[in-house]
Design goal:
Elements (H helix, E strand, L loop, with lengths): L2 E6 L5 H12 L2 E3 L1 H10 L4 H7 L8 H9 L2 H5 L7 H4 L15 H18 L2 E4 L3 H4 L6 E7 L2 H12 L3 H23 L11 E4 L5 H25 L1
Helix pairs in contact: 1-11, 4-7, 9-10
């Protein structure tokens, strides 16, 4: 009965923690994978998608229209036999001239998607500016996952088989891109602590402990919301 948004620094293990939280609570975890999959099914190339993403992904206008009018339960919980393309109403051939990417159309799509996810409930949303789009909404916990640059570099070196210089370059480039995206779109600092209910340093807590902290906070938030509803 809640929504959790997770903002994370590269190498903070935020994505893995978000997935663990979703599994523990029985929620669905949404990250860029869903958008990328829908983009591919809509015949927007992965190259085009990767050019934008948080960094500015842009679905085509017709896809936006088809996507928004679909029944939400069908989109989020398609039958096993139904592909993402069918679920999103994307099985029709799309003329080449409509495959133009449009930033405004993407942001309209994304923000409507995030609000629908909030209404769906029981979801964990990674990135996508959800902490801003869903700010102030009830039963929503905003979490930021961070770690020191040195620790993040160690993790990236191990995970990506990079040397220290390359890992630090990747971290700073990615953090800078995410910060610029957030600043351009929302005119805010993505590290602003007032955007979050809690910030967790994974250099000081294990993944399992971080997961437990977030799950416990979520359960307390739900209990508090129920208490207030009963009193009102």
């Amino acid at each position: 009965m809640a929504v959790i948004t997770v903002s994370r620094e590269l190498g903070s293990n935020g994505k893995a923690i978000a997935a663990q939280v979703a599994e523990e609570l029985g929620y669905v975890c949404f990250d860029k994978t869903l958008i990328l999959e829908l983009s591919r099914q809509a015949e927007v190339s992965e190259l085009e998608v990767s050019r934008y993403d948080e960094k500015l992904v842009n679905p085509i206008r017709q896809w936006l229209k088809e996507m928004i009018v679909q029944p939400w339960d069908t989109l989020v919980n398609p039958p096993v036999s139904m592909s993402f393309a069918d679920a999103a109403g994307l099985s029709l051939l799309i003329p080449d001239e409509e495959n133009a990417l449009d930033s405004a159309a993407y942001h309209e799509f994304l923000e409507r998607l995030l609000i629908r996810l909030w209404r769906r409930d029981n979801v964990v949303i990674v990135g996508r500016g959800a902490q801003r789009v869903l700010a102030g909404r009830t039963r929503t916990l905003h979490v930021r996952i961070v770690a020191s640059e040195e620790l993040r570099s160690d993790r990236i070196m191990k995970r990506e088989n990079l040397d220290r210089n390359d890992s630090m370059t990747l971290i700073r480039r990615t953090d800078n891109a995410r910060a610029k995206y957030f600043s351009r779109r929302y005119h805010m600092d993505w590290a602003d602590p007032t955007l979050y209910n809690m910030t967790i340093n994974t250099g000081m807590t294990r993944e399992e402990e971080t997961c437990r902290i977030i799950c416990d906070a979520t359960r307390r938030m739900i209990a508090s919301a129920r208490h207030h509803e009963e009193e009102s």
